[in-house]
Specification:
Distance between the termini: 10 Å
Number of domains: 1
Helix content: 55-70%
Largest sheet: none
Organism: Litoribrevibacter albus
Protein name: HD domain-containing protein
Radius of gyration: 16 Å
CATH architecture: Orthogonal Bundle
Strand content: under 5%
Length: 192
């Protein structure tokens, strides 16, 4: 039991280190990466989501922290190319969390592409940075891709994470810090 608690605390401290090291970077939005991720978790909690969705929303962009730190950026901090941060993040987190967290993270970019294909007004509501990244990520899905995406086991969860991703970019929103989510994170870490 103590080993599991120590492992879970190690995972949490690893995440704290990543947030502290890379979280204050800009990524083309009006808030920092850390503010964005904390807002996503906060909004998920406010909507009464499960701990899985709250933690997935919190960690959905962790791939930006572990991706190529020297990736080319345009002047406002927006990446010049897509390096599949959703895949990098999900792979990294798979060592520590179950599919109920990692799969929605891996699918949150696909969820944007899906929503652009099925909702006429969705694209217009995206931020400029999100529109830019959409083009890098393949644009809206085709009808065949839409049908396949809808068959995925974590399809609905990915849409929830995407929803919070879209709205977690508010300047001045008061949110709890990362430590507020510590117990949730530790509870969801896979036993080693």
């Amino acid at each position: 039991m103590e080993t599991c608690i120590a492992q879970a605390d190690f995972v949490y401290q690893t995440l704290v280190s990543l947030f502290n090291r890379f979280g204050d970077e800009q990524y083309g939005e009006a808030v920092t990466q850390k503010q964005h991720m904390l807002q996503c978790a906060f909004l998920a909690e406010q909507e009464g989501e499960t701990d899985d969705i709250i933690v997935a929303s919190l960690l959905h962009d962790v791939g930006h922290f572990i991706g190529p730190q020297d990736a080319g950026l345009i002047a406002d901090g927006t990446p010049e190319e897509d390096f599949n941060h959703e895949v990098l993040g999900a792979r990294f987190l798979t060592k520590y969390f179950g599919k109920e967290i990692t799969v929605p993270i891996q699918l949150h970019v696909a969820a944007k592409r899906y929503l652009c294909a099925v909702k006429d007004d969705y694209y217009d509501g995206l931020s400029d940075a999100s529109k830019h990244s959409l083009a890098l990520q393949g644009g809206p899905m085709t009808a065949e891709q839409v049908a396949k995406f809808e068959q995925g086991e974590y399809f609905r969860q990915a849409l929830r994470v995407r929803y919070f991703d879209d709205y977690g970019k508010q300047v001045g929103l008061e949110i709890p810090d990362l430590d507020y989510y510590r117990d949730r994170i530790i509870k969801l870490v896979n036993p080693s």
